[in-house]
Amino acid sequence: MDLLGFKAKVEAADRDEVARGEILNALDIVRDSLCNNERIGMRFTHFSDCIIFSANRNQEGLHEILESIKLLTLNLLNYDFFVRGGLAVGGVHHDKDFVFGLAVNDAYELESKKAIYPMTLVSDGVLSDIRKYDSRFDEFLIKDEEGRYFVHYLKLFADYTPLPIYAGKIILDSPGRRIVDFVCHRLNTHNADSVLKKDIWFQKYWNNTVAVRGVFGRIEAGVTERDFGQSPFRAIRRIAG
Hints:
Elements: E1 2-3, H1 6-13, H2 17-33, E2 43-47, E3 50-54, H3 59-77, E4 83-87, E5 93-94, E6 99-100, H4 102-115, E7 120-122, H5 124-133, E8 141-143, E9 149-151, H6 155-158, H7 173-189, H8 193-209
Parallel strand pairs: 4-7
Antiparallel strand pairs: 1-4, 2-3, 5-6, 8-9
Helix pairs in contact: 1-2, 2-3, 7-8
């Protein structure tokens, strides 16, 4: 997985303390969103804007990987970072010192050359595993306009209802408003075509899956009133089993 726009943030951070703080916040979010779990072979490594995580090729490992992708992407969205990635199956060596293998190569190919927009594309091998293990895994995926499957990281917002409130419920009202605000602001300020295309892609994804339910607002260019939500966002965390 790759943090989009990270290079520009690093360049800004060289002369701007606020930008340095944004980078440190993002890296804290990565650390809080992911966790190692030796029981299922779950490991993660990150360097600069690159994040690699792996798990055993079984039903539990796949579930942990999909949940981690979804959670990391949502947490970083609340700090105005888009994430792009690839998920593949195959051989991999992953320890505290080294990461390599065919699965790493395939995932990198998906992320760097095919995903383009802020999504995590899944390989045909992952699709085969999902269909083999449990039909409930299908809810993790959604198709793009080209018919390609990617991890449906907005599903938590698409399924959200404010009421009833019960013990342990994740309240998403404020995080949802933060995301709408950030992306509206992106649409109003980004001029580079390659960057704006990513903003517009996410705008369509949000409006077609989340805003259509009526709980959260639509993302539209031209919205000028900023709305960061009612309180600072605290990352949803993964806890090792």
